[in-house]
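Why predict the complex rather than its parts? Because the way molecules touch one another can change local conformation, and only a joint prediction can capture that. The input here totals 674 residues.
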Amino acid sequence: MNIGEIARRAGVARSTVSYALSGRRPVSPATKRRIQAVIDEIGYRPHAAARALKEGRTRAIGLVIPPASLLLTDMQLGFVASVVEAAAHADLDVLLSPSGGDHDRSFERLISGRRVDGVILMEIRLEDERVTRLQQAGLPFVTIGHTARPQGTCWVDVDYATLVARCVHHLADLGHRTVALINRSTELVAAGYGPAHRAQAGFAEAVRRRGLSGMNVPCADNPAAGEECFEQLRERHGEITGIVTVNEAALPGIQRGIERAGVAVPRELSIAGVAARHWAEGFRPQLTAADVPTLEMGTHAVDLLLERIATPDGAPRHLLLTPPISLRDSTGPAPAR
Amino acid sequence: MNIGEIARRAGVARSTVSYALSGRRPVSPATKRRIQAVIDEIGYRPHAAARALKEGRTRAIGLVIPPASLLLTDMQLGFVASVVEAAAHADLDVLLSPSGGDHDRSFERLISGRRVDGVILMEIRLEDERVTRLQQAGLPFVTIGHTARPQGTCWVDVDYATLVARCVHHLADLGHRTVALINRSTELVAAGYGPAHRAQAGFAEAVRRRGLSGMNVPCADNPAAGEECFEQLRERHGEITGIVTVNEAALPGIQRGIERAGVAVPRELSIAGVAARHWAEGFRPQLTAADVPTLEMGTHAVDLLLERIATPDGAPRHLLLTPPISLRDSTGPAPAR
DNA sequence: GTGGGCCGCCGAACCGATTCGACTTGTCGG
DNA sequence: CCGACAAGTCGAATCGGTTCGGCGGCCCAC
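Output of the joint prediction:
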């Protein structure tokens, strides 16, 4: 069931079959029909490897995800899903590669084995050796999130600094004077994870501008940590009336803490944040939040990558998204003293 | 940077380079060293497509996942992660293919484009056309979960019927007389989703054997549905003292319902279930449950697949796992009347 | 009637690896 | 001293596509 077999059965040359399928040269309607009939009959499809070898491109992209041992957050999962979706739409296959840990063989295979035409990188660090590696290999790539020197690369990101700042402004507008940021974990910040850094920076700046008193609280990415974090906050800093959170995975824990403490939201305490819509709407009461558009981001990443594959020497394009804050039920006027 | 270039620089024939790398024929130590030196210098790796073309295998496997629009449950995510992990360990690449919905092009590309050496299928239905398609294509495959006629295929599955039955027996042993099963959604059952069917069957059988009164309650895969489901159960069937659940995604909602209703677990109500350990331990109080060994299952699936690829005509092997029930804090003696 | 141009198709080269048969050495035994 | 044998290497064929140059036949214009 190769192209030669099709050609034989249709009584033409292999090249004619190829041209009939690709349309790169005219083929008479009669011949085209005969070829198509044979193909329909035996269900032929070009051999991907043979085509890749000759064409010099694989019609596949790589998606580099955090190592599997760490559980993916819902947001990361959303990216993966949307990238896969968008790629399928563009008739591209997606090769999954865990990176970090001891999985660098997989990453290396992807790159130097020329298995893919381009790569999408998730969970970028401010200094990221994978970016360096891809640059030196000359393989087109797009990152979700950006490094410390974002100019030279293509990326899609959410403007955490601005979004967190907007949350702070929103709370300040409602009269809150003392607010806290529940950030990602200390380890992530130490590892140079951009969103955590930028959230912190945006928070600090907005707090300063509005003359509020604010504190930055690190929190691991899981419900238990969220609950503990919330309890400590209540215990030690009872004066806080507004919370901003960028830690999606901690939300269920925060909610649990709130309910156990019997705090009324938003009457006694307001909460705003940055989260995937799915999580914001799952929160009780529904969370006022900037909804991270994971689906759009995956689509954009694939689009940018395709563009870059087509013109590798074009100017690198970026996309910094600033989704609007959806006002839901978790924020309200600051309680009277 | 192809094998010819290496050969040229090392002053040998291309075939010699190939033999030096594969070791399929003896090459003198001196030549081998010279070749290795050149390779180390310019960082050569064989071109995956060329190798695949000649060898007739791609060193990649396909992983067919539910369509991305549906959010993956934590358990499904665990499978994906463990398959990717295990594959990386065996130096295999993983091609992701969403299936169902309008994504069948992607599935078809995988198969007839011979992009992969084998396929792992998730979320199998009792009657599944993808299985039929793979069989007729003669492509080795392993399913996670099994169809109505499991004899002819390779699969790895969790014995839902037995596990649910064990939960029922556990509750019965503790003196509970009226129990409910919180199952997956009505749609899934209607679509012929095996685990939901088998959970129901196992529950019914165990309830009958122990002479309990029991009811089967369908529930969608999300927290909100879980909460509603729990509330209805309390409202209409207050006599229930034991709950068995196989609906992982509903757990947070169930927990919320319990807390809002102020029910004491396990004093007033016992809960047991089947869930990934991660979820069972995240439940408050920690959930007595059969921990679905997602990590093991992915590893086994890859192992079975590799075996099948090596000997496509061997007898199909299955693996039906029955993990033990971990006794945690959510079950206790039935309350006295 | 003949030359030019175009349409439709064919044959061969090529992509980068693997693998088989054959060839050149060198060594050892008879 | 010559033949057998083994070790080490080379050249060519092959996998299944795509693509380039060329060739035959037909139509049309001069």
